[in-house]
Structure formats: structure tokens, C-alpha cells
């Protein structure tokens, strides 16, 4: 351990075990006296952690606000167009809730005949049409047959299966999220990140690579194998 | 000696396994369920009888149709014929048209099933005066 070592000996015991700057024995730098008692497994990041968490929460509020605005538009559309509740033909419901003790109407592909007809309250023309329905159906015109169908059902099968434009909202929302995240990341990279370690600098990196080549790091298949030692260049 | 013991014990284990209560025929030694499997004809007949009930009520029609559409099959023309006649007894043209829409949807990607059904049901449709959704222009959006 105390013998002098040559530079090119392959052993790395003369290197420091930990990188510079770690105060291994002294413990973390806690932001405030009160927080010390809360959680023993507190993150050891020091003052930067407090800044990061408040930053993250403000960013979260901004993004959730924007997303909530976007989604509320879609939710309003969905709620106002729900056919099950809004038959608008004789249901005097004060609130938006459905009375589940009554037979319900539904438009479902897998359940063609719902518990009640679409239009419950019939006016006189509807009633006379219903009377006519009791006779031979050959006597009904096409319009009357369509009217009878529309009395009983809200949407036809093709109408139930019509495509919606929801995918545009989804993709658009995704891209908005990506954009906001990108802005957050960019801002964070500019304002929050500490200065880069000195080991990232050009000069240091060059010296590091030279050292690795001198040590013959992975000489068979890896790093040093790519270096042409004779011509002092990469293969 | 050990080998003999092992041989005896394994054969003993095997015979123990065989004497599990399988109650199967001597030829088959599998443990399939012994419930009777309904044939297609029995299934069809059962459903035709269901819809042929003279005093069928609206609930029974709804229940029958919803159950039938819930199965993984497209009903045979004779079952649909029986169901359409039940609609006639209940004076319910709209449900008759709905049934036709439903079986078209049940065919899924097999576009040749529905024309076959309409072809088979055409006599009934003309007799009862039921127009198909295509006749009424309701197959388009």
C-alpha cells in the first residue's frame, strides 16, 4: 500500500475512492429545523430539493389547469349529449341524476330492445299512428314506419356506430402535454440545473480518454480495441 | 431390491391414480363434464318455441331478443321469423326493424350473412309488411 506506484500499473488504488465534494461523514444539509423531525429518510439533496419541489408543484398547477380546461370542454359536450337521460319527452327531472328505479332507455349494440321506449309521452298524432300500427303494417307508408321507429328508438344502429372526433382531442391533448413538458424541461435546464461538473469539459474529457487508452481499457472487444495505437487514431 | 421396491411403489401410485372416481367408460380415461351438449337443432327449436308463445308479452320479447343477441352466434332465419311474428302479435313494428338491424350488426365482418337472412325472411317480411332498414333508408347515417 505504501510502495510508490508507476502511472501505468493497471491498479487504481492510488485514485480517490469517492469523487471530490462528497461530505460523506457530515450528514445532509437540511433546509429547515421543523422538517428534521418529520421523516428520517429525508432526501439528502440540500437546499435544491426544496426549490425543485415548489417548482414542480407550481408547474403541476399550471399544467393541470390547462388540461382541466381542455377536458372540461369535452366533459360538457359528453354530458349534454347523453341520450339516456335527455329524452326530453316528458321527463321532468330537476337535477342531472337518473332515477334508477324507473325503466331506462339505452342505445346499445348488444342489447337491442331497451326497457322503455324513447318517447314515452305521446301526442295525438303519435297516438293515432300507434293505433294504425295495430292494423296491417302493409297499410303504413315508409314515413309512418320511420316515425314509429323514431318513437320507440333514439338512434339507429348506424347512428350508434358513428365515429366520433374524440381521437383528435386525445392526440391534441397529448401534444399539448408534450409541449408543456418540453418547456418545463427547457426552463429547468436553464434556470435550475447547477453548473456542470468540471469533468465534463473538453480538456478533461480528452485527458480522460487518453488515460483510458493508456490503461488499455477493454482492449479486446471494447474501447481500446477501437484505437489504432500504431497510427494514433481511431480505427 | 431397492429397484423392485421403487417399481412396486410407482405402479401402486399409478393404480391409485386410476382408481380416482372418474366414472368414465373403460375406453376413455379423461374427465370431461357429463352435461349434455345441446345440438344446434335443439337450440333453434327451443328459441322458436320461445317466440312462438301465442300470448307472449313485451317483456318476454325484449328479454328473449336481448339474450339471443348476447350469444356468440347469428340466429337462424326460423328463430328470427318466430320473433318477427311475436312483434306482430304485440303490434310492435319498431322492434321488428330493430331486430333486423341487430342481426346485421351481429354478423360483424361477414357481410354475406345478412343478405342471406333477408332472402330467407323475405316471405315473412312481405306477409307482415315489415320494411327492412335498407328500404327505409335507415342503414345510412
Task: Explain what the structure shows.
The complex is a heterodimer of chains A (235) and B (141). Chain A is built from six helices and two strands. Chain A is mostly helical and 235 residues long. Among the domains of chain A are: 124-161, no CATH class; 169-194; 198-234, no CATH class. Chain A has a two-stranded antiparallel ribbon with strand order 1-2. The model of chain A is unreliable at 27-32, 34-43 and 81-86 (pLDDT under 50). Chain B has 141 residues and is mainly α. Chain B contains six helices and no strands. Chain B has helices at 2-18, 40-51, 58-70, 77-89, 93-106, 113-128. The radius of gyration of chain B is 26 Å and the shape is globular. The chains are: A mainly alpha (235), B mainly alpha (141). The A-B interface holds A 109-115, 117, 133-134, 136-140, 142, 145-146, 148-149, 151-153, 156-159, 161-162 and B 61-62, 65-66, 69-70, 88, 91-95, 97-99, 101-102, 104-105, 128-131, 133, 135-141. Chain A: Its main location: mitochondrion. Chain A: It is a single-pass membrane protein. Chain A: Pfam families: COX4. Chain A: Component of the cytochrome c oxidase, the last enzyme in the mitochondrial electron transport chain which drives oxidative phosphorylation. Chain A: Residues 1-49 are annotated as: Disordered. Chain B: It is a peripheral membrane protein.
Question: Keywords for this structure?
Answer:
A: 235 residues; 2 strands; B: mainly alpha; Cyt_c_oxidase_su4_sf (chain A); mitochondrion (chain A); transmembrane helix (chain A); Cyt_c_oxidase_su4 (chain A)
Note the total helix count of chain A. Answer: 6
Chain oligomer state: heterodimer
Strand arrangement in the largest pleated sheet of chain A = 1-2
Overall mean confidence score, pLDDT of chain B? 87
Classify the beta-strand content of chain B into a percent band: under 5%
Tally of strands of chain B = 0
- H/E order of the elements of chain B? HHHHHH
Strand content of chain A: under 5%
**Helix-strand string of chain A:** HHHHHHEE
Helix-strand category of chain B: mainly alpha
> Shape of chain B, please?
globular
The whole-angstrom Rg of chain B is 26 Å
Q: What level of helicity do the residues of chain A show?
A: 40-55%
